[in-house]
Amino acid sequence: MLRHITRTLFKMVVTLFVIVTLVFFATRLSGDPIDYVVGQGITQEDRDLLTRYYGLDASIWEQYVRFLGSFIDGQFGLSFVERRPVAEIVAERIWPSLQLLLSGVSLTILVAVPLGILAAIHRSNWIGSTVMTIAFVGYAVPNFVLAIFMVLVFAFTLNWLPVVGNSTPWHFIMPTITLAGALIAALTRFTRNAMLDVLSQDFMRTARAKGLSEAVVILKHGFSNASITILSVLGLQIAGLAAAGNVVVEAIFAWPGIGDLLVNAAILRDFPVLQFAVLAVAFAVIIVNGLIDIAYAYADPRIRLGRA
């Protein structure tokens, strides 16, 4: 088990290093940030002064070495646009993004897991068919389409819900539903399939033969064994939300999180902010995947025996 954890941590470090390198060189391909910081109405002397001030006069490899050093030291410099420390700007955006992610994941678990179990138990009647039909439709609808639909209906037409910001609990409703929509559909399907595999096993018939109630058989013996697969799928889906889902939803609803910061930094070519924000998202994805991998190995006795 310890060997597996060590190997997982090593892969996480290597992956983070590769992402750091790709982020640095990808941002340099988007153009000169000085043009977006001050525009075209300055003298060449002032432009050269700003270029030296931000360290953009050095070669690409010297900038890369400095960037790695700043990444290791935890000092990411100043924002080209806001003239503030990058770490300070990103720190202000982490908690709103985390709030939205937690609300979306919580809604997903509360809705998808019971629906998946219900669809597996009633797989041969209209209940299971209805649940799976809704799941397929939800999986096919992109989250930005769902967001636009809710904005048009609940904000502009009915005037029930606010669109921009996160100042009240009402602001969470549409972004949370948008973020959780496709994830609920996917997790419902995987939960149903995992439960169907477990329900056909011999130990389930043995549990019923012992006189246990159906609820105990389904939840204690069935769901506990199916949870290994569900945990893996949920981890991958959460990583996907952290990487891309939050960016789309925050951009649509002007949510003051990392996703909205990424979009604005990319438009303004604010390299320090863009690099740090991408790395923060990548780090979150790597951590989630690593924890799920470790939890999966711990929960599955076959993996534990194989490692031993």
What is the tally of beta strands?
Answer: 0
CATH topology (level 3) name of the largest domain:
MetI-like fold
Spell out the helices and strands N to C. HHHHHHHHHHHHH
Number of domains: 2
Compute the separation of the termini in Å. 7 Å
CATH architecture verdict of the largest domain: Orthogonal Bundle
* Main sheet characteristics: none
Mean pLDDT across all amino acids = 79
Low-pLDDT sequence parts: 302-308
- Give the CATH class of the largest domain: Mainly Alpha
The CATH homologous superfamily name of the largest domain equals MetI-like
Strand content: under 5%
The total of helices stands at: 13
- Judged by helices, strands and strand pairing, the structural class is mainly alpha
Quick summary:
By secondary structure, the protein is mainly α. The chain has 13 helices and no strands.
Question: Can you give a write-up of this model?
Answer:
- This protein is mainly alpha-helical and 308 residues long.
- It folds into two domains: 2-69, no CATH class; 92-304, MetI-like (MetI-like fold, Orthogonal Bundle), CATH 1.10.3720.10.
- 80% of the residues lie in helices and 0% in strands.
- The longest helix has 40 residues, at 214-253.
- The radius of gyration is 24 Å and the shape is flat.
- Mean pLDDT is 79; it is low at 302-308.
SSE blueprint and pairings:
Elements: H1 2-28, H2 33-38, H3 44-53, H4 60-73, H5 86-121, H6 126-140, H7 143-157, H8 173-199, H9 202-209, H10 214-253, H11 258-268, H12 271-299, H13 301-307
Helix pairs in contact: 1-4, 1-12, 5-6, 5-8, 5-10, 5-12, 6-8, 7-8, 7-10, 8-10, 9-10, 10-11, 10-12, 11-12, 12-13
